[in-house]
Amino acid sequence: xxxxxxxxxxxxxxxxxxxxxxxxxxxxxxxxxxxxxxxxxxxxxxxxxxxxxxxxxxxxxxxxxxxxxxxxxxxxxxxxxxxxxxxxxxxxxxxxxxxxxxxxxxxxxxxxxxxxxxxxxxxxxxxxxxxxx
Length: 133
Known about the structure:
Distance between the termini: 71 Å
Structural class: alpha+beta
Largest sheet: 3 strands, antiparallel
Radius of gyration: 20 Å
Strand order of the largest sheet: 2-1-3
Helix content: 40-55%
């Protein structure tokens, strides 16, 4: 019996998927852009921007303050959980200001209706902040 139990444990552990390495920043951006370019993803992103666009803009002033005109562009990726909470926020390049911006985004929550197929899984979001408009 002891050996049968050990065999079952070994079989179960062999059936488990190996842990996946976290996606790179570029892979997360590509996944988010693909979703943004889908019809349902575009509607969802539009609803999120409509709800939080002013806040996203205000975070620039809050994080950059009066840091002068030499601000560079940066990119942010985040996941929006099933409950609307933003999380898993990453930013490139990382500076004190961009980390501040990422932290503020991580505190947001959206009430936008989830797109089809994203009931429980996180929705990837990409934001490109360009100061040279």
